[in-house]
Amino acid sequence: MLKGEAHSAGLHGFAAAVLRLVRTTAFRLALLYLAMFVLSVGLILGVVYRTTAGFLEQEIGETIALEVAGLQDHYRNYGLPGLVEVVRTRSAVPNNNSIYLLTTAAGSILAGNLSGWPAAVPNASGWTHFKVADYGGVTDRPSTAQAVTFTLPGQFRLLVGRDMSEIDQLRTRMFRSLGWILGATALLGLGGGLLMSRGAMRRIEAINRTTRQIMSGDLSERVPRFGGGDEMDRLAGNLNAMLDRIERLMTGMRQVTDSVAHDLRTPLTRLRSRIELALLHETEDPEVYRTVLQDTIAEADRLLATFTALLSIAEAESGAKRQDFVPVELAEVVELAADLYEPVAEERGQRLSLDIRARPTVRGNGQLLAQAVSNLLDNAIKYTPDGGIITLVLDGPAPGRAACIEVADNGPGIPAEMRDKVIQRFVRLDTARASPGNGLGLSLVDAVATLHGARLELGDNEPGLKVGLVFPPEARR
């Protein structure tokens, strides 16, 4: 009983596997290609048949028609005796495939090699196809003939035809071969379709298995690639790139959450402490309360600036602003930013130099681009020593780019090993922790660059930092 149940379960599993295979798109496509292939083979064999057996039948028909015309002329010239003599002579030729029969109106045989008039009814053109073996044909084996019949003056009937047994055998063999070829084609096509579907299912199942592991929480899993370079490998590459992006976003989200909890706890604690101290130390001096309120407002402004920067980064990374892209004159963006920050640089004894070498136009969001340039200038002014020089350069199209905005300073710069890290949220160098800020400036610039398809390049100004915002050629209007 257990053995029978196991056998039944095995059959059920096999049937389920075959059913899943039949329902796959690859198998359905294989069946479609199989049907087209079988149809093509059938058409080719049909053409071969028409050019062989069909051509032979046509040639035989033309030969019989010419012979009939000759016999009719002979009858008109020599009468019935002459026709009888010709038919007897031609019928007596050994191994002759020609069939003749000349009878009277009553059916008496005058000449020919048939023992009686065939019972087959001729068609409208006078042609008939019948079995010769029933009447003692020209060979010992059953054979068929195709002949034309007509009535001569005096109600004499004449039948002229050819033995069609060889052509009938050829036709039978061709039809049998056609059946075998179509059957073999169908079996090979079906087998190939099953193999193709099985291979496609194995690769798709690998993708499904990976996605299930990812949905269970393992974001490190990736779709395997089979190395063929086909569309499935390209799909796997795109899926892996998407998974890399998702993993980076998830990691960034966790880092942001940790950083927000860590970096905002201190200012919120200071905020609460100031308010609590003001309540504990009662005083009638309004200046004390004014000072506490001013410090509280300043601390709240810093917190709001942090959240505003986070919202701007999230908005840029979401890509929603891409729908609002319009042609933007980059020269107007950098001129506005330079006018805004030039007084700030002068207060610190610095010199802000603007160099517009071209006036390119790109498709983008002018507000976000202006905010990105402002962040670059704000960082440069913040970390450049008093008396330093800050350069803002706008360059035009060049090989591999549509435009480039570059901000350079002669401050302490950023070590090469830290340049990939400083664009992350809340990441600040040890030398910059004493300066006001939240570590979101370059993160926002990088998000704006990604939104516009541009790249953010950090380099060495020797000394100082050089930051470039390079727009791709497709960013042109």
TrEMBL record:
Principal location listed in the UniProt entry: membrane
Residue ranges crossing the lipid bilayer per the database entry: 29-49, 178-196
Protein name per Swiss-Prot or TrEMBL: histidine kinase
Xref: InterPro entries: HAMP_dom, HATPase_C_sf, HATPase_dom, His_kinase_dom, HisK_dim/P_dom, HisK_dim/P_sf, Sig_transdc_His_kin-like_C, TCS_sensor_his_kinase
Annotated ranges, domain HAMP: 198-251
A Pfam short name: HisKA
Enzyme class: transferase
Record EC number: 2.7.13.3
Segments forming domain Histidine kinase: 259-475
Organism of provenance: Azospirillum endophyticum
Subcellular location(s) per record: Membrane
Catalysed reaction, written as an equation: ATP + protein L-histidine = ADP + protein N-phospho-L-histidine
Key words of the record: Kinase, Membrane, Phosphoprotein, Transferase, Transmembrane, Transmembrane helix, Two-component regulatory system
